Amino acid sequence: MKTPEWVRRVLGLPGAASVARQSTVVDAALERREALQGLTAEQLRERAQTTASDSPHAEVLALAGEAAQRGLGTEPFREQYLAAAAMLDGSAVEMDTGEGKTLAGALAAAAFALLGRSVHVISVNDYLAARDAEWMGPLYSALGISSAAVAQPHTSKERRAAYRAQVTYVSVSEVGYDVLRDRFRLSPTERVAPARDVAIVDEADAVMIDEAMVPLVLAGTTPASGDDTAEAAELVTGLEAGTHYEVDHDGATVSFTDAGLDLLEARLGGVNLFADENIPTFTRLNLALHADVLMRRDVDYVVEDGRLRLVNTSRGRIAPGQRWPDGLHAAVEAKEGLTASGAGIILDSLTVQDLLLGYDLLTGMSGTVIAVAEELTEFYSLRSGRVERRLPLRRTDEDDVVLATPEAAAAAAVDEVERRHRTGQPILVGTQSIAESERMADLLGGRGIEARVLNAKNDRDEAHTVARAGELGALTISTQMSGRGTDIVLGGVDGAAHDAVAARGGLAVIQVGMYPSRRLDAQLRGRAGRQGDPGSAIRFSSVTDELVLNNATRTIREQVEDPSRLDDARRHVITETAQRISEAIRADLHRSTWGYTRAIRRQRDTVLFERERLMPRTMRCASGSAISEDTPRMPRPSTASARCC
Q: How many angstroms separate the CA atoms of 496 and 487, rounded?
């Protein structure tokens, strides 16, 4: 039974931070707004240079709200003020999809800047960072606040200038790699020096939890050994699962059996693969097997223009500039018949969690924060709370349909899409991978139904595709919707056909298969029913979905061997249990990874501290004047704290 909200607050449980207690601050801000409305643009900027001492948060929020009205032509809702006030107070905030998180984050960023802080608004990708910086720019300009964005193509000079702005929009990977690259600069003047003061993390759960375990790796390369890598790929081709190799139960590792090793040694002329001189060959064979069996095209990577491009599976997007280390990248290239590049050498690494803990103040926002409230408390000491919807939820969440096989689930989903599509209702189909999105498009195409497909192969058209998903009769198939950023407005971008779409039930979200967590399911469902609009959501899955098989207990595995014997209630229990197990495994992996990296982190901090101590003590700012650094910028590493930065 769910613990009542008031009990959670009394006990101080994670996710129970009361956003409502910011009402006093918001009331004061709205009252001060009245006095600001008569000011000229110049007077408003002058007023922004001083902050009332009696209620500084109310004053800066009032200024930010007035700037939003003047610069953007948008009057913030009370709920957006509440969210901004909670972030000013150091809490992560949950706001449902379509409730205006971008503006709420900008109000908080402007307020922090007016209080003299340097702010990074951290997003999941470059597109959102650039879009939001441009979109919210007039708000900052109205207050005389400098703002900028950092993107992958930017030069060091452009990055340095952007980080000098009071508010900088940047993706988590770009700021992370800038921190890593700065560690290799030979003088302070070469650094881009992102100041880690205040971080407002958009899609906080995706960045702070889902991405926390993935290290940002700064890599170099060794000379390519294409012939040897290609030979290894050819040798493992045609090996049989269960006979020549075995995959562990969760599909994470693969290893040769004795029979497989005997076969390979025979193919290589009777060599002993365990002899010292053959260890490099054995390593290449293991990499080739991993690439052949575990790395999946159109799931883990795509091949475009003769190049291998990695897919961030948690976001459904291409990961630009990234490659697998230790020879795996070259092994996958050989598998696909591409020219093998050199093996990657890890020069330095930084986990997203360590990157974010380096900020003096950390906050964020997302549509599904409360689901990870315990982890935010455990790993970041960050409290969280929820801002309720401005208008009542009118979305209908229909019962899940759980069938015997993924093929049956896909067929049932196609039937549902066809039925709804005939009425003109806009439909968003959520899939688990590029391959599945294209398979659904093919199944629908076979019935004469054309769909727009959004996945990592065509994410350049992302904003346009998502924005049109609410048009009358629109059918959109997408991989993971987390971090897509663009709102789906009923009736199209301008909402011209809003009433006609609403009369047909609004946006219908149809999920095919199971995501690794209920939180990701909720993010997809949240695309329907924004701002009080009607909508519906339904999920089609099976007891033999990959997620179920990878996370099944022994009992469940035995039961799904013959799914026809399972009744509907038992099928639902099995899928729900597998999803909870998946969530628990991810949380345990997060804890384990965090623990394993502490010793390495303390060693790295010691080295960086000594390096910083020996660095020249002067650097030049953007204006060219010299700035004296009397003390090292890096803090002395602590051997006692797990939150050293």
A: 15
Residue 345: its pLDDT value, please? 73
Could you tell me the residue ranges of all domains in the chain?
5-217+352-386, 223-342, 394-542
Determine the pLDDT at residue 440.
96
What is the C-alpha separation between 515 and 25, in angstroms, rounded? Answer: 39
Q: Pick 223-342's CATH classification: 3.40.50.80, 3.30.70.2190, 3.30.428.10, 3.90.1440.10.
A: 3.90.1440.10
* Structure confidence by residue, pLDDT tens digits, 235-277: 999 999 999 999 987 677 899 999 999 999 999 999 999 999 9
What CATH class does 394-542 carry?
Answer: alpha beta
- What does residue 432 show for φ and ψ, rounded to 5 degrees? -95, -20
Distance, CA of 121 to CA of 130 (rounded, Å): 11
Q: What pLDDT does 411 receive?
A: 97
Q: Classify 351 as helix, strand or coil.
A: strand
| Residue 567: strand, helix, or coil | coil
310 or 150, which is more confident? 150
Check pLDDT > 60 for residue 478: yes
Whether residue 140 contacts residue 67, with contact meaning beta carbons closer than 8 Å, is answered with yes
Query: Residue 195 has what pLDDT?
Result: 93
> Which amino acid is it at 125?
N
* Closest to 25 (Cα-Cα) out of 92, 119, 89, 77: 89
Q: Which CATH superfamily is domain 5-217+352-386 in?
A: P-loop containing nucleotide triphosphate hydrolases (3.40.50.300)
Burial class, 144, CB count within 10 angstroms (exposed 0-12 / middle 13-18 / buried 19+): middle
Q: What is the pTM of this model?
A: 0.85
Q: Which two tokens stand for residue 582?
A: 């998946």
